[in-house]
Specification:
Elements lengths: L1 E3 L10 E4 L6 H11 L5 H13 L14 E2 L7 H5 E2 L4 E2 L1 H4 L4 E4 L7 H6 L1 H6 L1 E6 L2 E6 L3 E6 L19 H7 L4 H5 L3 E4 L5 H6 L6 H19 L12 H8 L3 H13 L4 H17 L7 H9 L14
Parallel strand pairs: 1-8, 2-9, 2-10, 3-6, 6-9
Antiparallel strand pairs: 4-5, 7-8
Helix pairs in contact: 12-14, 13-14
GO molecular function: ATP binding
Protein name: ATP-binding protein
InterPro entries: AAA+_ATPase, CHLI-like, MCM_dom, Mg_chelat-rel_C, Mg_chelatse_chII-like_cat_dom, P-loop_NTPase
Length: about 300
C-alpha cells in the first residue's frame, strides 16, 4: 500500500525556552496555541483527516483550532514520529498546523530527537513498513523547554549542584547542533520573585496579543498574494529576498553577522524570516537594522556539541 495524506505548506517558527524549574516555561507554551489564528478551511480538512486516521476525531466535527500536543519525554520514536503495526500518525502529525510542546527536551530519547530533524525541515514524515508506505503531514510549530542543567539550578550559587558548570555543558550536549540550528528563537526564562508577582501591573490579555498576531498575518497575506506563501516562514529564495525590502544598514548587519557568527545557510535564512516577522508585528513596511539585530539576538549561539556535524 502506498498512501499519502495531502498537505499544503505553512512553515512555522520554532522556539526553545531555557530556564530553571518554576520559571513559567510550560505556562507560556500552553498559552501559545491560543494566540494562533483559526485554521483555514483547507487546513481544517488536513488536520481533521490526520486526527480521523488516528481515531481522535470526536463526533465527526472538523478541527478548527490549531492543535496543541505535549507528549511526555518518555515517548518512543514511533509515538513521536509515527509507526506501529498499522503505521498510524505520531505526535508530530497530530500537531500539524499547530503546536508540538516538548517539555524537558534533553530528556527525550536521542533517537526520537534526531528523528525530528527531517520533519522540521520538510513538513512531512514517511513511515515505511513491509505492507505500508505512508506519508503524513507534519508542519508543526516546535516549542521546546529545558532546564539549564540536570539539577535545574545552574547559575544559582545557593542551589546548583557540585558539578557546576560541567553539568550544564553535559546536559546541552544531549542536543545536536543540527537540531538546535532548526530553532528560530532561543530565549531564557528567568523566575520572578513572589514579591514582584504580587505587585506586577496588569499585562496584555491573550486576546490583545492574538489580535496583533492576526494583523501581522494579514500584512503577510497582502504582501504575498493568494498564490504566494502563507506567511513569512514559508517564504524562500527570491520570494524571501523581495519581501525583506531591507534598508542598507539592515542588510549589511545581516551579512556581517552571518559571517562573524558563522551562521549556516539555514540559520541565515531563518534569521531573515524572523526579522521580517518582527517588522510586521511593529507595522513597518521595511526591515530595519533594529529588526535584524533583534532577530540575531534570538539565535541560539551556545557551544556546539562535538556530534553536530551533518545537516
Amino acid at each position: 500500500m502506498n498512501r499519502k495524506v495531502a498537505w499544503t505548506g505553512s512553515y512555522v517558527l520554532n522556539l526553545l525556552m531555557s530556564g530553571p524549574p518554576g520559571a513559567g516555561k510550560s505556562m507560556l507554551a500552553a498559552r501559545l496555541a491560543g494566540l494562533l489564528p483559526d485554521l483555514s478551511p483547507a487546513e481544517a480538512l488536513e488536520v481533521s483527516l490526520v486526527h480521523s486516521i488516528a481515531g481522535l476525531l470526536r463526533g465527526g466535527r472538523l478541527v478548527v483550532r490549531p492543535p496543541f500536543r505535549e507528549p511526555h519525554h518518555s515517548a518512543s520514536p514511533a509515538a513521536l514520529i509515527g509507526g506501529g503495526g498499522r503505521a498510524k500518525p505520531g505526535e508530530i502529525s497530530l500537531a500539524h498546523h499547530g503546536v508540538l510542546f516538548l517539555d524537558e527536551w534533553p530528556e527525550f530519547p536521542r533517537a526520537a530527537l534526531e528523528a525530528l530533524r527531517q520533519p522540521m525541515e520538510t513538513g512531512r514524515t514517511t513511515i515505511s513498513r513491509a505492507n505500508a508506505h505512508v506519508t503524513y503531514p507534519a508542519r508543526f510549530q516546535c516549542i521546546a523547554a529545558m532546564n539549564p542543567c540536570r539539577c535545574g539550578y545552574l547559575g544559582d550559587a545557593a542551589r546548583e549542584c557540585g558539578r557546576a558548570p560541567r553539568c550544564g555543558d553535559d546536559y546541552r550536549m544531549r542536543l545536536s547542533g543540527p537540531l538546535l540550528d532548526r530553532m528560530d528563537l532561543a530565549i531564557e526564562v528567568m523566575p520572578v520573585p513572589a514579591s514582584e508577582l504580587a505587585r506586577a501591573p496588569a499585562g496584555e490579555t491573550s486576546a490583545v496579543v492574538a489580535a496583533r498576531v492576526e494583523a501581522a498575518r494579514l500584512r503577510q497575506r497582502e504582501r504575498y498574494g493568494p498564490e504566494g506563501p502563507r506567511c513569512n516562514a514559508a517564504a524562500e529564495g527570491t520570494v524571501l529576498e523581495r519581501s525583506l525590502a531591507a534598508d542598507g544598514p539592515a542588510r549589511q548587519l545581516a551579512e556581517q553577522a552571518a559571517e562573524r557568527l558563522r551562521l549556516s545557510a539555514r540559520g541565515y535564512t531563518r534569521t531573515l524570516r524572523v526579522a521580517r516577522t518582527i517588522a510586521d508585528l511593529a507595522g513597518s513596511t521595511t526591515v530595519q537594522r533594529g529588526h535584524v539585530a533583534e532577530a540575531l539576538a534570538f539565535r541560539h549561539r551556545g557551544p556546539v556539541p562535538a556530534t553536530a556535524s551533518g545537516g
